[in-house]
Amino acid sequence: MEKKIKIGLLGFGTVGTGVVRVFQENRHEISRKAGAQIEIGYVLVRDINKQRTYTDGLQLTDDINDILKDKEIDIVIELMGGMHPAREYMLRAMEAGKSVVTANKDVVARCGKELFAMAEEHDVDFMFEASVGGGIPIITPLKQCLTANRITEVMGIVNGTTNYMLTKMTQGGSDYGAVLKEAQNKGYAEADPSADVEGLDAARKAAILASIAFNTRICLDDVSIEGITHITPADIEYATELGYVIKLLAIARESPDKGVNVRVHPTFLPKDHPLAAVSDVFNAIFIQGNAIGEAMFYGRGAGSLPTASAVVADVVDVVRDIVNHTFGRIRCTCYEKKKICPIEETVSAYYVRLLVEDQPGVLGTIATVFGAQGVSLNSVIQTRRVDDCAEIVAITHSVAHKKIEKAVSVLRGLAVVTEIRNIIRVENGQGAV
Ligand code: NAP
Ligand code: HSE
User: Fold this and answer.
1) 205 a catalytic residue
2) Measured from the CB, is residue 302 less than 6 Å from ligand 1?
3) Which of 65, 188, 316, 406 could form a disulfide with 34 if both were Cys (CB 3.0 to 4.6 A apart)?
């Protein structure tokens, strides 16, 4: 094999180290599959004096120009994370004629249009498979294997940290802080884990998925975001009692009249739903297409080697393009402008947990308020007492967001209602926007 392709790696943390390991351990097979020898030139880090492993044969630098000005480097892998200077380095790399592979959903979700335009202008590839679902192939399947479909729904568990936390809390009732620390120690969490637990990481991935699925540019501001910070052990216990699990879901749906709705929120999911069995750091994404029907993609959504698996696969694709002189084969597919459906216009079933005074007629009063606002109840239970109050849990039928908001605001004003403790959406399989 004569051809040699040189790579510049930006970032040598959790994923960067995984990429180096995959190249070291599978060097022979990867080169055979790519059709060229692949060699890592420089590795950019912030602190060149840090103690590191897997550095054999690598040249570390803290100067980006060592990579951008090296004419032998054809591909830049960006694994630093964050917006700046990652965005600028990627743009400069493409300007210098280098293809870019990244796992950075922050930059892809916010600056995808700009990055694709730069890639097109300079006839290079821009690949980002690892930005959604860690090691799970999902961007390439959507752009290539499922391209014949009109996609109507994408629903998934796309954040490994929160899925790990919710799983541990469900299985062992572990404390929220302790399980977050475990996820951080395993290298799943973002540098600032509030992006995981507050739903922002999943929202970035939802924006990327929805943009590709619906061929329209979905910005982060178009995504309604709610994290898991308000989920308590009591909600998890009720979910179990009622036959559900709580999952942080990213949901993107399109309806002919309302448009595209994209949202991230904790969800009561029936135990027999395929996504309910997705535990720990695993992610899964459900796609509904008009030709394929339902398809589900499942695997490890975070971690060093799983994420590196997706990054290196993108590199192999780019190398194949270089070898075959076919740059920029898969371009931006956001070619349509579509109406965005705001969360206020969506329809869902809800779980409402409230504390009320324990006296005759209160249950009837609550039911009357729901009824008066057009909210139909599917079930109501009252099994516990908390601080001398009765705790009521109601599960509604599908109802417009505006109606549930109105009903809850009326309930809050009632003297017999001590506290609305939580409101969580329930996925009841009706798939409505
Ligand atoms: P990480 O462990 O924090 O590593 C970041 C690396 O980038 C470090 O080596 C750091 O250098 C370097 N770096 C950061 N800022 C720099 C700067 N301004 N100049 C030079 N080097 C800089 O991050 P990670 O977990 O590997 O994540 C990397 C990217 O992959 C992120 O976009 C993340 O969202 C994405 N991702 C991560 C996972 C995961 O499971 N961790 C999964 C999917 C996608 P030092 O080593 O000197 O500090
Ligand atoms: N923090 C992210 C997660 C990493 O937990 O899923 C993968 O994008």
Assistant:
1) yes
2) yes
3) 316
- Give the number of the ligand closest to the Cα of residue 311: 1
> Both 37 and 114 in a single domain?
yes
Mutational pocket test of ligand 1: of 307, 309, 312, 314, the residue with most ligand atoms within 8 Å of the beta carbon: 307
Residues with CB under 6 A from ligand 2: 134, 159-161, 188-190, 196, 201, 301-302
Alpha-carbon gap, residue 121 to 249, rounded angstroms: 36
Ligand number nearest to the C-alpha of 280? 2
Does a structural domain hold residue 244?
A: yes
Does 254 lie in the same domain as 175?
Answer: yes
Identify whether 337 is part of a domain.
no
State pLDDT tens for residues 13-50: 999 999 999 999 999 999 999 999 999 999 999 999 99
Q: Which residues pair with 379 in a beta bridge?
A: 395
Ligand nearest to the CA of 48: 1
Q: What is the DSSP letter of 388?
A: T
Tell me: do 174 and 128 sit in the same domain: no
Q: Is 81 in the pocket of ligand 1 (CB under 6 A)?
A: yes
- Ligand 2 atom showing the smallest separation from residue 307 Cα: 7
Asked whether the predicted pLDDT for residue 11 surpasses 70, the reply is: yes
Catalytic hit among 98, 105, 168, 205:
205
* 170 pLDDT more than 80: yes
- d(CA 23, CA 39) in angstroms, rounded, equals 8
Contact 191 CB / ligand 1 (< 6 Å): yes
Average pLDDT value over all residues in the chain? 96
Distance 1 CA to ligand 2 centre (A): 37
Q: Is 195 inside any structural domain? A: yes
Q: Are residues 286 and 164 in the same domain?
A: yes
Tens-digit pLDDT profile for residues 64-106:
999 999 999 999 999 999 999 999 999 999 999 999 999 999 9
In sign, the C-alpha dihedral spanning 75, 79, 80, 83 is positive
- The reply to whether 102 and 158 lie within a common domain is no
Instruction: Report the b/e string of 288-325 with b at 16+ CB within 10 A.
Output: bbeeeeeeebbbbbbbbbbbbbbbbbbbbbbbbbbeee
Residues 100 and 176 in one domain: no
* Domain coverage including residue 250: 150-300
Question: pLDDT tens digits for 126-167?
Answer: 999 999 999 999 999 999 999 999 999 999 999 999 999 999
> Does the Cβ of 134 fall within 6 Å of ligand 1?
yes
The CATH number of whichever domain residue 206 belongs to comes to 3.30.360.10
CATH of the domain at 388: 3.30.70.260
Q: Is the pTM of this model over 0.90?
A: yes
Residue at a domain's end among 291, 324, 357: 324
Centroid of ligand 1 to alpha carbon of 264 (angstroms): 24
Q: Do residue 279 and residue 357 come from a single domain?
A: no
What is residue 1's predicted lDDT score, i.e. its pLDDT? 62
The structural domain count of the chain equals: 3
Whether the CA torsion 361, 362, 367, 369 is positive or negative: it is: positive
CA distance 362 to 154: 40
Token pair for residue 104?
């950075």
